[in-house]
Design a protein that fits this description.
The structure is a single chain. With about 240 residues, the chain is α/β, with parallel strands linked by helices. It has two domains: about 1-65, Ribosomal Protein L25, Chain P; about 75-244, 3-Layer(aba) Sandwich (Alpha/beta knot). The protein is about 30% helix and about 25% strand. The chain contains seven helices and 13 strands. It has helices at about 25-35, 90-100, 120-135, 150-155, 175-180, 200-205, 225-244; strands spanning about 5-10, 15, 20, 40-45, 50-55, 60-65, 75-85, 105-110, 140-145, 145-150, 160-165, 185-190, 210-215. β5 (about 50-55) and β6 form a beta hairpin. α2 packs parallel to α3 and α5 (about 175-180) packs parallel to α7 (about 225-244). About 35% of the residues are buried. The mean pLDDT is about 95. This is Ribosomal RNA small subunit methyltransferase E. InterPro entries: Alpha/beta_knot_MTases, PUA-like_sf, RsmE, RsmE_MTase_dom, RsmE_PUA-like, tRNA_m1G_MTases_N. Specifically methylates the N3 position of the uracil ring of uridine 1498 (m3U1498) in 16S rRNA. Acts on the fully assembled 30S ribosomal subunit.
Length: about 240
């Protein structure tokens, strides 16, 4: 079965009829990294809910053996707005992908200590692809270009449940806060960089309808906080799914 095979993401346009056409990088990965030979099989995902069992041919192609039914997008939809930390954002991308995040919006905020580098977005997308292959996700997360934190907070859909994670404040803990909310399918979580959000950013977010919450009494690193928050969100969503 495809789920027992090593996975390879390929964009939908590379599917031509009953075969996937490989580019040189993909061919190298299959033959040199995975050590596949002609006749060996792997699983192909297109990042849009599709899953295929495919067999490596003699040339630059994978022949479709079986196509699984397309899976609908998972629920809930999780958006992570993350202030860029000085180090470790690659691992945030990787772990957030494993935890089922839908969209990752990296931001530069008032307390950020790094510069925006547009070229990093392509690398982060590659990391998300690798994490999706490893974690057997069928949908790739959307990695948005870096933008200003204030803009991302102001322009997040008001239809989403929105929480702003803060430290050193007496606030509702995220877990019971989520459990107390009516049924939700869209959740946006905003995590600041080292030093957190500025007072001005906090005021703006609250005025825009964001709810300030706590991740506990410990002061978490900027790269730890998003993983904790996403884990709690998925735990609440899974519990509600079982209850239904």
């Amino acid at each position: 079965m495809a789920r027992e095979l090593r996975r390879l993401w390929m964009p939908p346009e590379q599917l031509q009829g009953d075969r996937w056409v490989l580019n040189p990088e993909q061919r190298h990965y299959l033959q040199r990294v995975l050590r596949l030979k002609p006749g060996d099989r792997c699983a192909v995902i297109n990042g849009q809910g599709g899953l295929w069992t495919a067999e490596l041919g003699d040339r630059d192609q994978l022949f479709v053996v079986e196509a699984a039914p397309v899976v609908p997008p998972p629920q809930p939809r999780l958006t992570l707005i993350q202030g860029l930390p000085k180090q470790g954002f690659d691992e945030v991308i990787r772990q957030a992908t494993e935890l089922g995040v839908t969209t990752i919006q990296p931001v530069i905020s008032d307390h950020s200590q790094v510069r925006a580098e547009a070229q990093k977005t392509d690398r982060w997308r590659k990391i998300a692809i690798e994490a999706s292959e490893q974690s057997e996700r069928l949908y790739l997360p959307q990695i948005e270009p870096i933008r200003a934190g204030a803009d991302a907070i102001a322009q997040t859909s008001k239809d989403s449940l929105r929480c702003l994670c803060l430290a050193r404040r007496s606030l509702p803990n995220l877990l019971p806060w989520l459990q107390a909310q009516p049924a939700w399918t869209d959740l946006a979580i905003a995590i600041g960089p080292e030093g957190g959000w500025s007072d001005a950013e906090i005021e703006q977010a609250i005025a825009a309808g964001w709810s300030p919450v706590s991740l506990g009494s410990s002061i978490l690193r900027a790269v730890t906080a998003p993983i904790v928050a996403l884990s709690l969100a998925q735990a609440v969503a899974a519990t509600r799914s079982l209850d239904n």
